[in-house]
Write a structure and sequence with these properties.
The protein is of the alpha+beta class. Among the domains are: 102 residues, no CATH class; 40 residues, no CATH class; 74 residues, RRM (RNA recognition motif) domain (Alpha-Beta Plaits, 2-Layer Sandwich). Helix content is 34%, strand content 11%. The chain contains eight helices and eight strands; from the N terminus they run βααααβαββαβαββαβ. The chain has a four-stranded antiparallel β-sheet, with helices on one face. A two-stranded parallel ribbon has the order 1-2. A two-stranded antiparallel sheet has the order 3-4. α3 runs parallel beside α4.
Length: 313
């Protein structure tokens, strides 16, 4: 078996570069140079050769049949390189692989694949640039002869320069038309046109008031009584006071200032640092909430804040 030879340009290429070039570069060269059928046939040929060696290899991986897809060529190339690596690890002696058509052997090394791809990309970009130039030339012929009259604030109809257009279009004000807008818009027939912006109507703002009067003359109209007749209170936190301060001290201080105090409770000291200060939960009538936040009412350094209520867990 070792003295027989196998004709396969793909296998000849792979075995000449295997072990000397990174696996990824070899796969890139296979994908970029050979057709799907060539790589698939080379994979089947190598499987058949390895299957027929003596002694027989028991753990030979199966030859996977890849479905037709855009990625089929790369998958078959990876299967082929995986089998070559398997055979190399097993130290299996294979027959030499030859090429019957040297034109089917890449004339460049796998490391040059990126250079070839770059050249192909340049060619593709040149073709695209040529297409853009042709379209630009057509557009110039369309707008050739257009004259803008600034005094009359009108533009000359462009239909004379358009192909397959027999009807005359209405003049469009030049203030809403420019070369930039011509480039950005086309109708269903591929002709350029100018988009007019729709003017949206302003949204009406709803108004709301709260009555303060006593009615009109002898009117029997009356407002509904409040659903909650309880007096409204305001809750706040008072902290950073001297640790010897008591609840009576805070209540008396606020009462002397003319503020009606509903309740005043000292907060528990749960942390070590809280023992340096005294803090209170103070409740006053709603009408005195602004007086409570007069900074001149409190000693310098006192911390007074609105009480923050948290949801119970």
């Amino acid at each position: 078996m070792a003295n027989d030879c196998v004709i396969s340009e793909v296998l000849c290429f792979c075995y000449n570069y295997y072990g000397k070039t990174p696996r990824g570069e070899i796969i890139d060269a296979l994908v970029g140079f050979y057709e799907d059928k060539e790589i698939e046939l080379a994979k089947e040929t190598l499987f058949n050769v390895v299957r027929g060696v003596t002694p027989k290899i028991d753990d030979l991986p199966r030859c996977r049949l890849r479905k037709d897809s855009t990625n089929k060529r790369r998958l078959d190339s990876e299967d082929l390189l995986s089998l070559i690596e398997f055979v190399d690890k097993k130290n299996v002696e294979l027959p030499p692989f030859y090429a019957a058509d040297i034109r089917r052997i890449p004339s460049f090394s796998p490391s040059m694949v990126d250079t070839v791809r770059l050249a192909d990309s340049i060619v593709m970009l040149q073709r695209q640039l040529a297409d853009v130039r042709n379209e630009l030339s057509e557009l110039k012929s369309m707008v050739k002869g257009q004259k803008v009259n600034d005094d009359d604030n009108t533009t000359v109809d462009l239909s004379a320069g358009m192909h397959n257009v027999d009807t005359v279009q209405e003049p469009v004000p030049s203030t809403s038309q420019s070369y930039a807008t011509l480039f950005q818009n086309k109708d269903d027939q591929g002709q350029w046109f100018v988009v007019t912006k729709d003017k949206t109507k302003p949204t009406a703002v709803s108004r709301k008031i709260k009555g303060k009067g006593s009615g009109c003359g002898n009117s029997s109209l009356k407002a509904a009584a409040p659903s909650n007749n309880k007096p409204r209170n305001w809750y706040c936190f008072v902290g950073r006071l001297d640790p010897d301060t008591t609840e009576d001290d805070v209540s008396k201080h606020l009462s002397d200032a003319g503020i009606v105090v509903v309740s005043c409770k000292m907060l528990k000291k749960t942390q070590k640092w809280q023992e340096k200060y005294a803090a209170f939960h103070v409740v006053v009538e709603f009408a005195y909430k602004d007086m409570l936040f007069d900074d001149a009412l409190w000693p310098e350094g006192t911390d007074v804040r609105d009480w923050v209520f948290t949801k119970s867990k």
